[in-house]
Amino acid sequence: MTKLTLLAALGILLTVQIVASTKLVCYMTNWSQYRPGNGKFLPENIDPFLCTHVVYALASISYDNQITTIEWNDDVLYKSLNDLKKVNPTLKTMLSVGGLVNGVSPYIRMVSTPETRKTFIRSALLFLRLHEFDGMDIDWQYPGHNGSPPEDKQRFTTFLKELREAVELDAIDTKKTPLILSCKVSGIKYTIEHAYEVAEISGLLDFLTIMSYDYHGHWDPVTGHNSPLFRSSLDTGNIIHHNINSSVEFWLSSGAHAERLLLGFPTYGRTFLLSTSQTGLGAPANGPADAGPYTREAGFWSYYEICPMESSVTIEWINEQMVPYAVQGRAWVGFDNRESFTAKAQWLNSLSLGGASVWTLDFDDFSGRFCYNGAYPLVNHLRNALGKHFVIIMQKKTQKLFCLLLYALIESLFTGFPPKPTTTPRPTTTADPIASFCVGKPDGLYPNPSDGTTYFQCFRGNTYLHKCQPGLVYSDACKCCDWP
What we know:
Blueprint: H1 3-13, E1 15-18, E2 23-29, E3 53-61, E4 67-68, H2 74-82, H3 84-87, E5 92-98, H4 107-110, H5 114-130, E6 135-139, H6 152-174, E7 180-185, H7 189-195, H8 198-204, E8 207-210, H9 244-253, E9 261-266, E10 268-273, E11 300-302, H10 303-306, E12 315-318, E13 323-328, E14 331-334, H11 338-350, E15 355-359, H12 377-386, E16 390-393, H13 400-413, E17 444-447, E18 454-459, E19 462-467, E20 473-475, E21 480-482
Parallel strand pairs: 2-3, 2-15, 3-5, 5-6, 6-7, 7-8, 8-9, 9-15
Antiparallel strand pairs: 1-16, 3-4, 10-11, 10-14, 12-13, 13-14, 17-18, 18-19, 20-21
């Protein structure tokens, strides 16, 4: 019996309401391993239940049009990342490919002829399968720009068509699930117009991440927010489009599929060095503030470098744009916090977009050492703000087997959040019995003595609390949720 036949049979007994699935795609970078002290980030720092997809950045393209690693230990880090799927089998991992080689995108050379495209596609698919990735993310900033000729706009579409065809054939040959294809795309109207055949590429990719950040930065003569939701009354000229609302509106009006568009959420802020006594939005500025102690890049602070300020300076709120900023001495930083993430998540849900994309996990307080709100305070909050994926309503009692099969079937048919721990790893203290439950215990599932409808999962000493589906209770005999 096929999955569709089984679903039809089960539908006779059950009414199922399916809500559009939501992706939470999170990037990690292979250069974050070189940050000092508590800023060092490795795949082992990733909560395997936090995101639906984790994208490893970055791989590149060699001069002979082969996919290639960048860091000396990429293959080791690939394995560490993909081992997380042994803990959470629903997690999807992807490899981002692109960046710059000697200041130029390697895609320019690669897409130039059918032969070079074919060479790359063949090598990429073999490489992804070898290292057990579930898909590839294309990082080309941007076709038709930065040394890329205007005709690359059409060549990019052609490349995606050939890549999509190859992916489908690969799935048949390997008898595996087709590889996922995604792309990071611009949020700037002028760039979008000259880089993409929007309707065509939207139909060829599984999802597109709008880089809805870097709208303003130290390159501007006045302060402006990194990732504003809406236009400011101070914006004039082309700057009126430098906001999330304008970017998404333009992608949709150009023919993009709403359910394939992901909104980019930055876990960092852009800084300015104030040049007068003015401190508000639009205040005169002259270059970037000093680099942060961990990210070490002028004009740029990670959230974990920003959040300690929240207890010592006033956090200002830009009502028009639904985002915060802060001033410390002459440094001005526009960043995102949990309040702005909530506003953006509610807004994307109202448009039925495909979900959210985070740049990056290693900029959030991944260790919980800086913000004192647990690990990943921003991304965890975003996940909660995005909401659930589907609701199952049973109209009448049915057989236990059919219910369990339906749950399993829906999980296999629809992409979305994996079974979500209702809590995330927290610092272990003797005063918190839930957080300390897994201390000293082997990884695995355990009953919750105080609530039979929930159970604990222990992973690397962290405690995750899961809740069974309505009407079921946890059974330690089968390590599963069962009927009472």
